User: Fold these one by one.
Assistant:
Number 1:
Amino acid sequence: MAITWRAVVLAALGVIFVAVLPAAGTVVAWALVVVLLCVLDVLLAASPRSIGLSRTVPPSVRLTETVSSVLTVTNLDRRRWRGVVRDAWQPSAGARQDRFPVDLRAGEARRLTTVLVPVRRGDRLADRVTLRAVGPLGLAGRQLSIDVPARLRVLPEFASRRHLPSRLARLRELDGRSAVQVRGPGTEFDSLREYVIGDDVRSIDWRASARRSDVVVRTWRPERDRRVLIVIDTSRTSAARVLDAPRLDASIEAALLLAALASRAGDRVELVAYDRAVRARVAGTTGPRLMPAIAEALAQVEPVLVEADWPGLVTLVRDRLSQRALVVLLSALEPASVEQGLLTVVGQLTRLHQVLLASVRDPELDALRRDHTDANAVFDAAAADRTELERQAVAGRLRDLGVEVVDALPDDLAPQVADAYLALKAAGRL
Amino acid sequence: MTQISGPGRTPGGTPAQPLGQIPVVLTAGTVVGDGSTATSTARARWRHGRTTAIVVALLVVVAALSVLPRPRTSGIPLAPDNPSPAGGRAVARILTDRGVTVEYVRTTAAAAARATSGATLLVTSTDLLDSAQVAALGRTTADLVLVDPSAPALDALSDGRADRYGTPRAPGTIVSADCSDADAQAAGRITVDASGLLLVDGAGVVCFPGDDRSTGAYLVLTGHRRLTALASAEPLTNGALAQAGNAAIALRALGRNDTLVWYVPSPQDSGTDQVSAPGLGDLLPPQAGLVGVQLLLVALVAAVWRGRRLGRLVTEPLPVVVRSSEAVRGRGRLYRRSRSLGHAAAALRAGTARRCATRVGLARSADAVTVIDAVARATGRPSEEIAALLYGPPPTDDGGLAHLARRLDDLESEVHRT
């Protein structure tokens, strides 16, 4: 049962009658007229149970991209079906318009398109479809809500992909297509080519130049087929909000950019999301299937409010990796939790692997530190200063243990992690 | 597309042909209805809401019973709606049954307005009336019946032709008419608890005399209008009406005319003015009330219209919303509340020293003397000043801390400049 605005107008018309015939009977009679007409309309309305419903949704969409959910309504009644259909979704699915006036002849079907612009990562679920069939008078109708399950997987946005072209250019530079300026241990000799102005004179191969009449330089190719293990920390420190998003979102962006870059560089990428248990894992996937697999795996990862189990992670890494690899920890540089957890076990990792710790830095911390407007603000600034000193002290101790530390603002984290990876690769430290 | 099974769902690809429906080929996963019928839904709703419905129905019945018109009674002595022994409802009922219109009023203004010629005005007591009210009653042209009048009121209303002496007697004293008045003779004997009415001069008669033969319990003055006075209220009361000839004297005195204005003076009424200026209600047209009721009904219908949702609210599992900087702010509040000026100043100084050292290219492990020397060289300030600023004693109050913070800022900006 539901009534429409027309029933309100009908009731309001009674005011005229009451003004003309001011008697209690007029009020009662008009109320009866309204009720009777509404009941009649409900009885004459088509049944919401005679509608066939099916929903078509694309399996997944990248965050902030637009997608359409198509609901097909089919009138199975012998009567004309008029009314409203609501295709309900979770608020974060971002449905702009989910109510549709529908007028179907017997046997007719229509497609109702709900435009969705998801605002959150993860599985967005459709709620019930509500059918309100209105009677021929348009006064009242029958209503029914029906479960039509549907799920839309929202993948991470990967906004950091805009940094990919420039990093790939740097990679090509390393890759021997131009002379590398850095010659570290472990770089592999690639080929000889003619000297062009701008090349580092230290790259000139004098012996080869002596054999030919030209000056020849050596080019270097960084090592390939190294292993990169990306560990995303989903423990309580990843839940804290920096600007408008949890730390985890920045970590995911960094992981996606690093995975894209490393796979193009010919390294084998593995990914684990971990707090006290493995929340997501991508392993053994290479080539074009890697990025979709990572996006799919990270779509559903949410922060868990538990303390991370770092010894467990060390065991996990030892099980996964047999040879030297780059272990990228996308975690937080929280002095207390790092001292209690990571610092106690990171030595076991650095003995075997190159470890890179990437942490999101809160711009509010810097704002608080600089704010000296009044005494209260100065106390906050002092607290920010102390926290910053502790962070740097912890970062220093980690560096002493051989860990590369990247501490960057949310938007800068992904490119800085990529840069750190390229630097390690160029230096042959993988 | 999702495959669904369950009641009310069609198997994929087969024509759905329920009763009364037309054959349409549906695609796989199509849902029709939710397995319920209109009857089952109605039954479920009734089961769900019957307790509420019964309670509401009971409340409505109780409310309807409580507003049903009911005989109204009061406890005011001699009031026509007072059923107690001291009340006057018996007389009023008998008079009404005999065709007399009884108008019950509580104000002088109302009594004076209704007491026209050809009516009877009963004043049950004069104790609460001031002289202006008595004068207003005296200006009416109706026949007057006064019960237990005070001497000044009787004097004023009878133009000095009658007087009153307070002569209380035991309740239930039986007195005989002993006069020529027809009403008194018809009553014969009545019961009274007071007497003392005296005819001064003019046309009239005193009946039911007491020990003093010149005063009585009943006085009638004739002239341009009839004035009847009863020294005792007893003959009119419910309790004593059936005794002796009380009923006869009461009905004859009050039922002389077709209209009886029954005035019971009220302590709230102290003037003779008409009721105050017309209120807002009097300015509205008469149908305004009913239109208001109809508008209330319209509002009710509108509430039902807006109150029925098109499907339920959809919930959203929300993520954690703790800001990362909350821990730092909490630490700042701890410093503030515990007045840790020393800790706060040390943190500010250490932070500045650290940043200055980084800018001038010192290692993390550089000691205080090295830092002071390097900063002094970079800023051109004397070493003592730098030492006092970076490693001096802690400030003693909030102002000192703020001042220190500003000076550290200045120092840092100078190092930045070099």
Note: Confidence is low (pLDDT under 50) at residues 177-186 of chain A.
Number 2:
Amino acid sequence: MAIRIVLAGEGGQGVQVVANILAESANAEGKEVIYIPNFGVEQRGGVSIAFVQIDDKRIGSPKFPKADIVVALSNRAVNRTLQYVDERTTFIYDDSLVAAAEIDERAMGIQAVEADPRSQRTTELIDESKVKDQVQLPDNAANIIGIPANDIAKNELHPRVFNIIILGTLLKATAVVPLDRIKEAIEAKLGAKFDKNPALRDLNYKALDKGMSLVERLV
Amino acid sequence: MSEKPVKGERRVFMTGNEVCAWAALAAEADIMYGYPITPQTDIMQYWTRLAPKYGRKFLQTEDEISAGFTTVGGVIAGKRAFSATTGPGNTLFQEPMSMAEMMRIPTVVIIPQRGGPSTATVIYSQQEVTMTTYGGNGEGFRIVYSTAGHQDLYDYTIKAFNTAWKYRFPTFVLGDGYQAKMREPLTIYDPAERGIKMVKTEPLVGLPGTPGIHRPAQYLRNTYNTEEELYDVVMEIARDYEKAASEIIEWQDFDTDAEMDVLILAHGVVSRSAQGALPLLKDEGIRAGHFRPVTLRPMPEEQMRRAAAKAKRILVVESAYGQFLKLVKQSLYGMDKPIDTLLRPGAGVTAEEIVDRIKEGR
Amino acid sequence: MTREEIALAPNMPKCWNAETKPHKFCPGCGHGLALKMLGEAIDELGIQDKVVFGCDIGCSLLSWDFFNLDSVQTHHGRTTPVITGIKRARPEIIGIAYMGDGGGYAIGAQHLVNSATRNEKVTAILINNTNYGMTGGQMAPTTLPGQKTETTPYGRDPEETGYPTLGPEMVAAIAREGAYVARGSIANLRQLKKYLKKAIQNQIDGNGFSFVEVMSSCPTNWRTNAENTWNFVEKDMAEYFHVGEFKVPGQKEEK
């Protein structure tokens, strides 16, 4: 079965690392994979996007119009990835970062607001500078899931394992790659560091578990 | 020669640009000349990291004109020399490549096409088809392989060196930005273990012995004095090219044996979308086939005509505004077949879009 | 040889190709003299079996079958990169790039500049005759102020078209140590040969880029008789373009 994933965030959030580990693990699993790190010049100062397709048979076009899973890790990333969402898409976003649109005329009629648990909270006066940062979540997705990955990383684990939480979430959601494969890929990348500091290994695997606990299998 | 860069067979997962660097190493390329331009630059970056380990060389030139002419120089000196460029860089390459065409210099150039015209995008397109097949002030005496993915990039980069040196025409591996930047699995291998023998290179200058004493001097020309002289030279190149064409052409066809409602013509990475569209069309009750020329120069014309003859209509799909279409029309000249198009300059095409286009055309 | 034959035998460098002589340059053209000095330099260095000679488009092209040397015609301005490509691929070859002022200072200026900055181990020889000869006498980068050409019929106006390029001065300024840079003249052939020899020896020694500009004549396009031709080379040109060595490896630079 083919799975098409779009993963987007700010530079430095580790979007490409996550996509890379997922893609490499799927490849190691013998799957057909296409991973495109970025379309365009966005690698400089823009939103970092990763496009991953995983399939049992040879994959056609590297480009795809709509994704099965979109993961957006910043406000800009949400805006940038709306185009890949349709009624079959599960849209996962980090709700510890994303301020959903206010309930006012600007946002009236947007289904997504109701799907966003935090929408109830945002009743402050509108600050124009914040409005720019506000996002509209998609109104056509099959599923919209907010995960507080950033908060968890910051409060429970360590800010640097934020991307591993996301990896766990994706792993669980897609279920295309067994956990062991992912661990092999993580070991291949970070094993040397882990050996020097075994606490890091624990921390990363905890983050992976935590990420997996945030969602159910979706595909 | 130091040890072989690729031994046996290995499944790998890498970007197309890295694939090209490994392929050039495996093909025993001696030297790369180049100038950075996205999305080609990584080929140089991988090459500069790998090449010294295997005794191969690199020169970063001042521009693509120089990259092309130094490549020509490297080949004249008898080395398996290559370069890579794209977009505006490919434009500048047309000058040295016309020299290579005239003087039968077997250069190899890898072109991951980017958007055009002008600077456009660094992303992707199929807009360098006209330029790569027929560019420069020449007659298109070139060999152009249009690749559809990483296995192609590996296979045809190796093959390009052999085709170039066997037939002595400038040879191009025409990829695109998607293939350059994306990662997908492929098998890399030592060509020798698959029975692929690299065609021996030979110098055109700097031969052994003193010219004029032990042997005549080599005089390599591209300038002629009279119409008749030039005519004879060009016609000889044309004859050689025509003769070699049937040995060089490559193509793939999919579901073209039976009668078709529509034959999709596409090349390069767009061919993958066309292949993906076939089962979807079948589900819709549309009898569709697909023909993919692997060589755009020379074009497998007869094979394309044979497939076209069995279809009611033709659909040409490309990420350009009719560059491949022009080659198709030239190939199918005289056939009474309606041609529909899905032309998306500088933008990718998905299988779904092809299906939609065909349904809309009914 | 009989006495008459000796008397008649032209005094040709050994590495010249006798079959293509007499050569095709116009009467009074300086190319023949420069190529004679180059031929003698190659003979004296004993490197006929090692040289690859590249010639530019323009009058320089007429030298393509001039020598019994492996030779390659290139495109206008592109001789330096072709020879560079050959040299990089086969360092044992002695690469000589022969061009005019258009090829070196205009259309191929970026190649000259960058080969010099990279210190490519090739020898570039540039004939400066203050105009584009092959195309019928248009302004060149080296055309003198006030000089009439087909595209400056009222004389070159530096306000409009700048001053003549001082090539060796420029190359000396950008080339690294190890480079050899000189300007000679067909008015002093012994000196010119010395410069050419040093420029080739410098490549053989693997020191770096070598560049010699040769002040030369073009009576056909200058429309000058013999006397005025020599006056132009020896006086008018020499006033603007100074003969000498601008960079010599191992030698302290004169300021």
Note: The CA atoms of residues 91 and 259 of chain B lie 41 Å apart.
